[in-house]
């Protein structure tokens, strides 16, 4: 499967299943499996009420050899307009 199809699978999953449309920021093929990173806007009522910048989450998504999503996890959180983010602890839920 080519990278364009993999990108579409991940974007569709985030937009339709998680209701978090986003932008792909990376995709790598390794031993027949794909790892993709997607950046999405994290909705937070507190942020909106207090006029804070939107939060952007970066998720890492793994697809198996059959191009099925087998794992996704948020790896970073940052404010829109800021370069630095907060790495997510892999032990957090």
Reconstruct the topology from this structure:
Layout: H1 3-17, E1 22-30, E2 33-42, H2 45-49, E3 55-63, E4 69-79, E5 86-87
Antiparallel strand pairs: 1-2, 2-3, 3-4, 4-5
Organism: Desulforudis audaxviator (strain MP104C)
InterPro entries: Gas-vesicle_GvpO
Protein name: Gas vesicle synthesis family protein
Give a summary of the structure in a few sentences.
By secondary structure, the protein is α+β, with helices and mostly antiparallel strands. The chain contains two helices and five strands; from the N terminus they run αββαβββ. This is Gas vesicle synthesis family protein.
CATH topology: Nuclear Transport Factor 2, Chain: A
How many strand segments?
5
Do you know the CATH architecture? Answer: Roll
> Quick one: biggest sheet?
5 strands, antiparallel
Supply Rg: 14 Å
Number of domains: 1
The succession of helices and strands, N to C, reads HEEHEEE
Structural class estimated from helices and strands: alpha+beta
What general form does the structure show? elongated
- Give unreliable regions as ranges: none
Helix content: 10-25%
Tell me the number of helical segments per DSSP (H or I, 4 or more residues long): 2
The CATH C-level name is Alpha Beta
**Distance, first to last CA:** 31 Å
Strand content: 35-45%
């Amino acid at each position: 499967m080519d990278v364009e199809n993999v990108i579409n699978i991940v974007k569709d999953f985030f937009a339709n299943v998680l209701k978090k449309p986003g932008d792909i920021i990376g995709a790598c093929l390794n031993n027949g499996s794909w790892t993709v990173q997607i950046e999405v806007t994290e909705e937070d009522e507190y942020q909106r009420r207090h006029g804070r910048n939107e939060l952007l989450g970066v998720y890492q998504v793994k697809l198996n050899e059959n191009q099925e999503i087998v794992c996704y996890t948020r790896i970073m959180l940052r404010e829109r307009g800021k370069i630095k983010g907060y790495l997510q602890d892999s032990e957090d839920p």
